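Section 3.1: Structural characterization of target chains.
Under the original work plan, the team committed to producing a structural model for every single-chain target entering the pipeline before any wet-lab resources were allocated. The record below documents one such target. The sequence was received from the expression subgroup and is listed exactly as submitted; it comprises 309 residues.
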Amino acid sequence: MTQTRRSFLATTATALTGCNLLPASGKGNWIDAHVHVWTPDVEKYPLARGYAVSDMRPPSFTPEQLFAHCKPEGVNRIVLIQMSYYQTDNRYMLDMMRTHPGVFSGVGIVDEHAAGLAETMRGLVRQGVRGFRISSGKAPNLSDWLGSPGMATLWKTAAELKVSVCPLINPDTLPLLDKMCEWYPDTSVVVDHFARLGMAGPPKAEEVQNLLRLARHAKTHVKASAFYALGAKKVPYLDMGPLVRQVRDAFGPQRVMWASDCPFQVEHGHNYSSSIAIIRDRLDFLSEQDKAWMLRGTAEKVFFSAAAA
């Protein structure tokens, strides 16, 4: 019998890990790969220049507030993404990681133009950070951004430390990201929120293909996340099913991870349960093994494994 590409990927992934992941039925032990937290205590944790208290919406989203949403759904570990309100001051995220040992991993923000970038990254990795967020939105020229000396240092150092580069990008940046993945094939990459495909209307076929093209880079992963902001933006998000399937087929489930993007997922009529349910309960083309990878295994491998710092 001819083996499909997808079945080959799943079989290979299981062989490489040396274990069978637990089935995804029931509730328990899932990982949310993308959450932001912040505190109204701006005296202890000042906001970055250019941000005001009025920008904090909601005014507070602490780990305790998060747990009220995620724990009833069996999500017990979370990847914290450094919030833009603090920019490169990662202290609040790091403090929450220390306050809740074993619960959080972290993705930090660093200034790629600052002196001592590699050592800054090493210091953060020693404190449990396992990824570094980059955003094309800050750069006036995307080609300059992707080819800058600081960005080169960031990608090379991430590979040395065995941590990930985590791009927050729009679909138009995908070809340039593809080039960076060619330049730095040893660097693990985790693309946030399907590269925001479908945020501004139905994704174009060319944009979808540009995302799927990244699957040829063995260390590139995709977050199936931010369902509240993509496609029809309506619960139960089933219109996103075809994109989930395409990404699963191209990357294999062992390179796809679910995430909520809280607190934004729990605002304006959306809720946490609907975000995890689309992967856990509502897409019949996902096998139990697919769900186990996407809801736990992939994020565990990428964000909760040992680094080289």
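Residues 26-303 form a domain with the TIM Barrel fold (CATH 3.20.20.140).
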